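Key result, reporting period 2: structure in, sequence out.
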């Protein structure tokens, strides 16, 4: 018998909750709700800024009018260093929802980072009347814009050609740079497998102090490769050394 009473109490509670919700669905004053979501799986707006990219992103917002009257809603967007473009005002019918899109634009090469974007909706007209006659009806939504990281390693020789004497050691300087936008980029460096194989087959010995380096964005560093020429060469010969750099990030 006690179980039956408990079940009846739960049903009454649920019914009471539904009645309260329906009664509050129609507001007697201006009211607006806004929700925004980015286009990625994480809900943020991802913007690619590598050279040649569009440098743009977007997110979608939904305005909901829970009142029985039409509302004119003003939209303002705070996006920090990003350029944001959205509608100035939106009209939302009684009990209706309206979706709109906000476009974001970043500068090319901007450092990888996450930027908060705040979108605010304020009711400026309700049922044809200026909303300043009523308490302010507004709502805000926060969206994150992610400036995506990209890699841009560079490579340059201090000398394009060197003259070598049989059996002697020489240093070849290779300048590695980072034109990417991350905090650091770890790069694999060296001589290509095919090039190294041909040189070693000819009798060359090649040494390097590192096979990977870390470089800050906008910075560069020079790595010396020690090359020992083979002995016993009695005539002029030409050899090509092919160096490489590869970012571990991309």
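The corresponding designed sequence is given below.
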């Amino acid at each position: 018998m006690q179980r039956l009473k408990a079940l009846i109490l739960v049903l009454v509670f649920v019914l009471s909750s539904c009645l309260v919700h329906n009664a509050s669905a129609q507001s007697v004053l201006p009211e607006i709700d806004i929700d925004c979501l980015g286009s990625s799986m994480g809900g943020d707006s991802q913007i690619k800024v590598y050279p040649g990219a569009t440098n743009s992103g977007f997110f979608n917002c939904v305005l909901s009018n829970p009142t029985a009257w039409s509302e004119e809603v003003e939209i303002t967007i705070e996006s920090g260093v990003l350029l944001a473009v959205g509608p100035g005002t939106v009209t939302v019918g009684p009990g209706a929802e309206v979706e709109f899109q906000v476009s974001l634009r970043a500068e090319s090469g901007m450092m990888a980072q996450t930027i908060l974007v705040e979108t605010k909706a304020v009711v400026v007209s309700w049922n044809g009347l200026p909303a300043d006659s009523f308490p302010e009806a507004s709502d805000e939504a926060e969206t994150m814009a992610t400036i995506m990281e990209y890699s841009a390693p560079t490579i340059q020789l201090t000398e394009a050609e060197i003259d070598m004497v049989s059996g002697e050691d020489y240093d070849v300087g290779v300048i590695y740079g980072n034109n990417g936008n991350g905090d650091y980029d770890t790069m694999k460096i060296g001589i290509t497998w095919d090039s190294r194989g041909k040189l070693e087959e000819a009798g060359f010995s090649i040494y390097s102090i590192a096979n990977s380096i870390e470089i800050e964005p906008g910075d560069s560093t020079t790595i010396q490769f020690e090359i020992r020429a083979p002995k016993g060469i009695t005539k002029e010969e030409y050899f090509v050394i092919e160096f490489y750099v590869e970012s571990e990030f991309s």
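The helical segments are 2-24, 193-201. The first strand starts at residue 33 and ends at 38. This case is discussed further under Risks and Mitigation.
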